[in-house]
From TrEMBL:
Domain Enoyl reductase (ER): 10-328
SUPFAM superfamilies reported in the protein's UniProt record: GroES-like, NAD(P)-binding Rossmann-fold domains
SMART domains: PKS_ER (SM00829)
The organism of origin for this protein: Hypocrea virens (strain Gv29-8 / FGSC 10586) (Gliocladium virens)
Residue runs in coiled coils: none
GO molecular function annotation: oxidoreductase activity
The protein's name: Enoyl reductase (ER) domain-containing protein
Length: 333
């Protein structure tokens, strides 16, 4: 089959299309013909792939994808209704150490444990479905598992038009929060307006502390500098949910990565700050899909690229100004 391989260390110059064998599945795994895969531009710079001896694994990029089942292991429970021909959306998390493969969806076929997938709603295209799991689950877990966001609260989403932030904005509006977002381009402002964001702050012109106070929940998709500013605007009982945080340790170490199966809570200037890494949750992803089907949430796609053009897809992500999720189509589709 055709697959993209990344040969770290290095960025897009280390991506290659290769011919490899179709993966063999274990009894509890499922093989999927990939139709579309979500792109994570940052993953080319993750330290995860460095081995003990200083050499590197050569992973297939991607963590979430959508496609059609072509093979089912004998121990996959029948009640999961994962059969040959079933359309599924899949999310594998490479961040946590595992004996299983760290290969993702940028290939003709990909395999995953049955617990990493759900049936794809018919109303979603494969491109839309591939854009959902990683980004939408990150927003869901950040807002509801950790911040316990409620109606009437004020939510600030920093980095408002990135793929994860766009879900956080929609989910915040959905539960009745007042939603403020940061962005810096006309295109971003237009997109945020279309999502009925209550207030937009141009992060290039305005410091958060000069415009805001008493924020209940900050969803920070940007980084440490934004955390510093957010500490000045979050209320005493509020919380900053970080999905990017370089202050919490070296994620390249297996032991540290395993410890991130639990969120990392700390107090800074008397405020609660949490950093967490998203994981698959079948129940939550099913709820998100139901909301998509009901029209209460929508997938925002920032770009769709042919399989052979994946390098340009990564380059678009690397600009740091993606407006929605970038998706790469499966080969030959
Ligand atoms: N912890 C986890 O489990 C987890 C899960 C998912 C993602 N992440 C991380 O979260 C980060 C965001 O990822 P993403 O893929 O959603 O988005 P992304 O593609 O990294 O972000 C692009 C967006 O960021 C905005 N932006 C850039 N610099 C900014 C700044 N200084 N202040 C405010 N906004 C800024 C841009 O808006 P303008 O065009 O308007 O400038 C653009 O819309 C990445 O670092 C990713 O690795 C972590």
């Amino acid at each position: 089959m055709q697959a993209w391989h990344h040969h770290p260390p290095g960025g897009t110059e280390k991506l290659k299309i290769v011919q490899v064998n179709i993966p063999e599945i274990d009894d509890d795994e499922v093989l999927v013909r990939v139709h579309a895969a979500g792109l994570i531009w940052m993953e080319l710079y993750w330290q995860l792939y460095e081995k003990e001896d200083g050499t590197y694994k050569t992973p297939i990029p991607g963590e979430d994808y959508s496609g059609v089942i072509v093979k089912v292991g004998s121990k996959v429970p029948k009640e999961k209704r994962l059969e040959v021909g079933t359309e599924v959306m899949v999310f594998v998390t490479k961040a946590f150490s595992s004996k299983r493969s760290t290969d993702g969806g940028m290939a003709e076929y990909a395999k995953a444990h049955f617990s990493r997938m759900i049936r794809k709603p018919q109303s979603l295209s494969h491109v839309e479905a591939a854009s959902v799991p990683l980004s939408a689950l990150t927003a869901w877990q950040g807002l509801f598992d950790y911040a316990k966001l409620q109606a009437g609260q004020t939510l600030l989403v920093a980095g408002g038009t990135g793929p994860t932030a766009l879900w956080a904005i929609q989910m915040g509006k959905m539960v009745g929060a007042r939603v403020i977002a940061t962005a810096a381009s006309e295109q971003s402002f237009k997109l945020l307006k279309s999502l009925n964001v209550d207030e937009v702050i141009n992060y290039k012109e305005v410091k958060l502390e000069s415009a805001l106070e008493n924020i209940d929940v900050v969803f920070n998709a940007v980084g440490d500098e934004t955390t510093k500013q957010a500490l000045k605007v979050v209320s005493k009982d509020g919380i900053i949910v970080n999905i990017v945080d370089t202050t919490v340790g070296d994620l390249s170490k297996e032991s540290v990565r395993d410890s991130f199966r639990e969120p990392f809570f700390r107090k800074e200037e008397g405020r609660t700050v949490v950093f967490f890494i998203v994981d698959m949750n079948v129940e939550q992803l099913t709820k998100i899909c139901n909301l998509l089907e009901e029209g209460k949430l929508k997938a925002v796609i920032g770009g769709v690229f042919e399989f052979n053009d994946a390098v340009n897809a990564f380059k678009q992500g690397e600009t740091g100004h993606a407006h929605g999720k970038i998706v790469v189509k499966g080969p030959g589709l």
